[in-house]
Amino acid sequence: MDLGLTDGPIRGKATDLRVAHGDAREKSKLHDAEAVGKTHAGWDAGVASNDCVDAWQKRLHELSDLVEDATDALTKAMDQQISDDGSVGAQLRRSANWLEDA
Predict the structure, then answer these.
(1) CB environment 2-39: b (16+ within 10 A), e (fewer)
(2) Distance between CA atoms of 16 and 11, rounded to whole angstroms?
């Protein structure tokens, strides 16, 4: 008896989220504003700009960590649900076998 229990689609999405998270973390590097300013004539950037860059970088990492936490929670909940559904499925199979034997 196939109860249609499958975790593939959800597990695939969790994997996609992890890959996107890793890619984003690698690509979310902001340049030092003061160093960039020195390479462009007529543009000046200093400590305040660097503080802004640092604050934004920190916020991006915080948001990234939230995505990672959500992915972990999704995976844990899915594993529990599949486990519970598998247990119910096993009980249904035993009941069906018992009825056939009776």
Answers:
(1) eeeeebeebeeebeebeeebeeeeeeeeeeebeeebee
(2) 9
Length of the chain equals: 102
Task: Report yes or no: 82 and 5 within 8 Å, Cβ to Cβ.
Answer: yes
- Mean pLDDT value across residues 12-38: 75
Residue 56: C-alpha distances to residues 62, 77, 81, 90 (Å): 10, 32, 37, 51
pTM listed for this prediction? 0.56
Residue with tokens 């096993």: 90
C-beta atoms surrounding 75 within 10 Å: 18
Task: Determine the Cα angle at 24 with ends 22 and 27, to 5°.
Answer: 110
